[in-house]
Each structure stands twice: as C-alpha cells, then as structure tokens.
Amino acid sequence: MNPWPIRSRSLAAGMVLAALACALSLPPARMLIEQSMLWHMVVQMPMLVVAGSLLMQSVPAARLPDRLARWNAYGLTGFIAAQGIIVYWMLPLAIDRAVVLPATDVLKIVSLLACGALLARAFARSAVVVQLFFLGYTVSMLGSAGLYLLSTTRRLCNAYSLESQFSAGLSMLILASALTIAWAGFTLRRRESVRDPEPARMREAGPRPRTN
Amino acid sequence: MEPNSLPATERPGESAAGLWRTFLASTLVLAASLGLLFAATEGGSAFTTETLRRSAVMRSPQPIPDLQVIDASGVSASLLERRAADPRVWIVDFVYTQCASVCLSLGTVYQRLQAEITERGLQDRVGLVSVSFDPARDDVPALQAYASRWGMKPQVWQVLTLARPGDRRRLLDAFGIMVIPAPLGEFEHNAALHVVDAAGRLVRIVDHDDPGRALAIATALTR
User: What pTM, to 2 d.p., does this model score?
Assistant: First the structure.
C-alpha cells in the first residue's frame, strides 16, 4: 500500500516537523511565538515533542545502546525525565526567558526534542498502566494550567498579553482532551493488531474438545 | 512504537539487577528535576518573571542607571543629578504617552496618588516620576500634552523622556521592564510601581493596583 517503510516515514516526518518548529524560533516566523502564547505553548512546544518522538521512532530499537536501555526498564526513567522537562517549560518564567534570551530558546528546542525522544522509547517499552499514569498526570497538569490561564485576570508572562494568555489557556484545554482521545484510540488499535489470533480461531471452532 | 514482543529476559533492564538500576536512575532523575524546578522558582515561591524580579529587588536594592533625561519643560539632566537634587523618595512608573491600554490605568493610579500626596501633605517626602520608554515619539511637546491630560502638579508629579533613544535598552533592563511591540503602534509592557530611595536605589516593586502599599513603603523610607 505504502512504498515507504515506516521508519523512513517517521524520519522524514520528524525532520520536517523539527525544521518547521525550529523555523518558528527564527525571523520572520518568530513574530508568531513572540506575540502569541498559543503559538509558543500549544503549537511550537508540542511540535518539538512530536518531532523528537518521530525521529526516535525512526531508529531501530536494536541500534540503541543496551547499556543505556538497562537503566530505563519499562521506560520509567524516560517518563520521569520527560515529565520534568514538560513541567519546566510550563513555568511562566521559563516561557518568558525563551522569548527574550536566544540561548534559552535553543535549550528549549533541544530539551523538548529530547523529551519527545525519551517518550517514544518509554511508550514503546511500557505497559498500558504505566502509560496511563504518565498521561493522566500530564493531561491533568495541562488541563488545570489551561483552566487557570482561562480564569485568571493576572498577566503571568511579561511577554504576553492577557488576551493571548486566555486563548492559550483555551487551546491547552483542547490539547489535553485531544491527547487523551488520541492515546485511547491508539492504544485500542494497537491492542487489536497485536492480539494473538489463536484464541479467536478456537472460539470460532466451538468449545474445546476434552483431552482426557 | 513497536509492541513488546520480546520476552522479558531479552528486553534490557527487566532483570532484577536492571530494575534496581532503573530504580536508581529514576530516583536520580526525579531528584534532579525537582532540584532544577526548586532552583528555578526560588523554592517554589516565584513562578513568574515578575515575582522573581520583585523578590530580587527586595533582597538587594539595585542602583538606578545614570541616563540623560529631559523633563516636560525641556530641561535636560542626568537621572542621578535629578535624583541628587531631590531629597524625596520617588515612586517611578514606565509609560509611553500614546498608550491606550495599561498606562491608562497607570495614569489613573498616579492621579489618585497625586491627590493623596497633596491631601496628606506628603509632597516634600514623596515624589511621583513617570518615565517614557518611547523616546522616538515622546518629545517635549508630547510630555507636555501628557502632563496636562493627567493634570500633573509639577511639584508632585514629573514626566521624563530619554535624551538619547539609544539608552532605552539600559533603562528597561535596569528596572526589569519587558516591552513588546504590539499592533497599532502600541506596546505590551509590565506595569508596576517602583520605589526608588533618595540614595538612588530601586528598593521595592509593587503591583500597580496597590498604590496604597507603594505610598506606605515610600513614606516609611523617609522617616
């Protein structure tokens, strides 16, 4: 159906997305993230995470050093590191700094790409229940931050106006719901596709014959 | 994402030794993340640039920069010369005279402060200073128009602009003001009241909707 193997597709998509996200930090597109909290927090930052994740998915697991993977059973270490990175970039003072200081902006790009890469490995190695724990935490954090931005009349970022803060809050709520739905859909589809076909065939054949 | 098709023994890290390693690594990463967040927010007390800036100023007062400024009557002098010639504590705010948003409320706040200072006879102890960060547009006539629009009493409230537009960056950095150009020739900027003592040090930054506190701090400094 598709002439491209899935890894090359991930690589190409990851590179395009990473390039687009980086372009948002450079003029003339930088104006968008300088003037809109929504473009900064809800477009560029998630784009970087997704790009990092796609790039990591393009690397075959066998090529990754075992030595590192041994410290990351079930992707637990990766989940915690990724969570730390996400929490940091949700701080208003960190967002302000990324707007004003180019060095911090570079740090933001690198750390969010790394966050995506860590998450790709973590999701690939972890059980659904661990994923749900991480996702639940992230979504509730994103959701409550979004609600706060929507409801407060205090300007939290020196770099953004109150209106910009309001629309960012609203789209953070939408992003939180979208993430939950996307994860649920993805997990259900994956469960379908990896289900062992054997029991299904047996069910069709009727009750098992007795062996003794 | 690939499904976990390998048996657990072939997946790295999922042996007993690997779980201990992961536990150790996770704990270290968690401690490092918490440490970083703790340091970045000053122990969880400051989440915004504004609170960070205020607590820094409160901990250690900062000297104001010596920049050439012009007042509404066209007199040019350095900011420190003006500071030395005036024994009062200053409450300083930053504006641009074309402003149609946040400086309007700042203007109202200053009008109220001016009325209160006059009423309580504090004009020899506390002075109000508005500094423009838009020297390109705010010349002497613009300052005069601003002064008459807000009914400034020169003995209480003065408005200044930079004599050299190139000094703008230094002015904003010294007071921690972030100015972002907005559509229609407007600027987005953080509005606050800056208390500057007679020695020329920025000692406190107060919310612009809490002028009573700024005045209390200023009068306490002159006692």
Answer: 0.80
More confident residue, A5 or B173: B173
How many residues make up chain A in this entry?
212
What's the token pair of residue B105?
């409320």
The tokens of B177 are what?
């003001």
Q: CA of A26 to nearest chain B CA: how many angstroms apart?
A: 17
Gyration radius (Cα) of chain A, Å: 21
- How far apart, in Å, do the first and last CA atoms of chain A sit? 48
Q: Is the dihedral of CA B14, B15, B19, B21 positive or negative?
A: negative
ipTM of the complex: 0.78
Residue A96: list chain B partners with CB under 8 A.
48-49, 178
Q: In whole angstroms, what is the distance from residue A83 CA to residue A69 CA?
A: 18
User: What is the layout of strands, in order, in the sheet containing B201-207?
Assistant: B62-63, B201-207, B192-196, B89-95, B126-132, B157-162, B68-71, B76-78
Q: Taking an 8 Å Cβ-Cβ cutoff, which residues of chain A contact chain B?
A: 34-35, 57, 61, 66, 69-74, 76-77, 80-81, 83-84, 87-88, 91-94, 96-97, 100, 120, 123-125, 127, 155-161, 190, 194
Closest CA relative to residue B206, chosen from B197, B219, B217, B198: B217
β-pair type (B157-162, B126-132): parallel
> A168-183, pLDDT tens digit by residue?
999 999 999 999 999 8
pLDDT tens digit sequence for A49-105: 999 999 999 988 777 777 788 888 888 999 999 999 999 999 999 999 999 899 999
> Minimal CA–CA distance to A157: which of A101, A90, A106, A102?
A90
Q: Which residues of chain B have pLDDT under 70?
A: 1-13, 101-103
- State the DSSP H helix or E strand holding residue B148, giving kind and residue range, or none if neither: helix B140-149
> What's the burial of A33, exposed, middle or buried (CB within 10 Å: 0-12/13-18/19+)?
buried
